[in-house]
Amino acid sequence: FGIMAGKVKWVTDIEKSVLINNFEKRGWIQVAENEDWNFYWMSVQTIRNVFSVETGYRLSDDQIVNHFPNHYELTRKDLMVKNIKRYRKELEKEGSPLAEKDENGKYLYLDFVPVTFMLPADYNLFVEEFRKNPSSTWIMKPCGKAQGKGIFLINKLSQIKKWSRDSKTSSFVSQSSKEAYVISLYINNPLLIGGKKFDLRLYVLVSTYRPLRCYMYKLGFCRFCTVKYTPSTSELDNMFVHLTNVAIQKHGDDYNHIHGGKWTVSNLRLYLESTRGKEVTTKLFDEIHWIIVQSLKAVAPVMNNDKHCFECYGYDIIIDDRLKPWLIEVNASPSLTSSTANDRILKYNLINDTLNIAVPNGEIPDCKWNKSPPKEVLGNYEVLYDEEMAQSDGPDRSRPGQSTGAKGNRARDLGKPVLTTWK
Question: Strands 64-65 and 39-41, how do they pair?
Fold first, then answer.
């Protein structure tokens, strides 16, 4: 057997120190991807190949990877919206109180993604909606790109007609996914702090989809724009005003290289408690947690719940000036690049805590293991939702939107209809 027997053998195709330092700290052994490995932290490109029909790759019981095979059901902008729309319809059919609507036919609780259409497919539906509210601004994003690439804002139909002609291949004819865009109602009343727009990046770890078990990382952060926000249409094409992606903001003249335009979520919480009050702040965070769980429940039925997989998602949430949270998108490979020293520490700890849950005791994986680790190993994660606990727990004792006081109940409560506090 020799000395090598008990050591996890790892591979990664993402050359990031926050990953490699974590593997080395555990005394794990680096191997090449064509050798026997136990743990592969891979890019989304690689996961495609591993699970593709052609390679027909079979993972053995002592191998785990950091993505679900079809994670894109949640992490592609168009598919996420499609799955959430399907989920709403299903809840409606079941007569679930969650699918309740107001007198204008708007969902009371499930209205947490901005109105979105796929282009080119839904072009006519989009035009119809645009004409109902011609003063609105829309944001257009390519389905398959990240870091703010290819995004632009429009407030006139002529701009989108121009776009459809500009893509020389006349992309309204081509249905190929390459030119697929989503167009969403732009949240033009974002909550501003110091006059600037920001969004929240929250990390959510899913260890299994059926039953759903997910964890929220406590140390999320806010990403600020470097330029003060204005809804003025003259600034529609100034992305420093509208997009919080660090990949974009770091090129701005006012980008701060010390804090990188970031605030911790706990800073945000304190700030909101002192400016808006404790009660509405608690309600906001309960709602954020609730919509994350709902988005996971929406994709769980279609997710290939492979026992070799776990995933750490980067959730992007925008809060509007009424303190309503909106789910903007979910990232499959949240950036592990560090823009600041604090950032590096945060991401190192994020990976450390993720590995402690995904690879219990740092031992060679065994896919038959029970995937609910003891509280002691969660680090900065807390259980967000645990379907097994929720089901075994009997009658409904409380609902999200009402903080249960005892933190422990929260894991069971999310996902129950919220009827009292969310009017």
Answer: parallel
